[in-house]
Amino acid sequence: MGAKHTPGVVPGAGSVALAWGGKTLVPAKRNRWGVLAQRDFRLLWVGETASGLGNGITTVALPLVAVIALQATALEVGLLAAAVWLPWLIVGLPPAPGSTGYPDAAS
Predict the structure, then answer these.
(1) Rounded to the nearest 5 degrees, what angle is found at the Cα of 31, between the Cα atoms of 30 and 33?
(2) pTM of the entire predicted model
(3) Can you tell me the distance from the alpha carbon of 88 to that of 17, in angstroms, rounded to the nearest whole number?
(4) Confidence bin at 67 (pLDDT 50/70/90)
(5) Which domain holds residue 67?
């Protein structure tokens, strides 16, 4: 009897090489920087970090500016905070029911 062969694993290559569609996939040499070595990921990461920082600052600074500079009341600050969600409600909610690609249960 011969050695057992696990489907998808290349014999003699250990557990790091996999066969996929007739091709052998061997992981690239690991870099100590990991995904940070990839320029596209770094750009995405910096962009998402800047966006999150901007959102956090806006959450605090916008009501603060309204109270200090415009002498806004509590009701006006509350309306301002609610207005931040308005674009998401207008743009995000209407297409949601039809976005699944499945027919409605009623049809």
Answers:
(1) 135
(2) 0.50
(3) 45
(4) very high
(5) 31-88
Question: Could you tell me if residue 103 is inside a domain?
Answer: no
Domain count, the chain: 1
Identify whether 71 is part of a domain.
yes
**pLDDT tens digits along 4-55:** 555 555 555 445 556 666 677 666 677 788 888 889 999 999 999 999 999 8
Please name which of 47, 45, 18 lies closest in space to residue 33, comparing C-alpha atoms. Answer: 45
Q: Name the DSSP class of 102.
A: S
Q: Are 28 and 19 in contact (CB under 8 A)?
A: no
Query: Among 29, 23, 25, 22, which Cα is nearest to 14's?
Result: 25
> Does 6 reside within a domain?
no
Helix locations, 33-99, DSSP H: 39-70, 74-83, 86-92
Distance CA 2, CA 19 (A): 20
52 within domain boundaries = yes
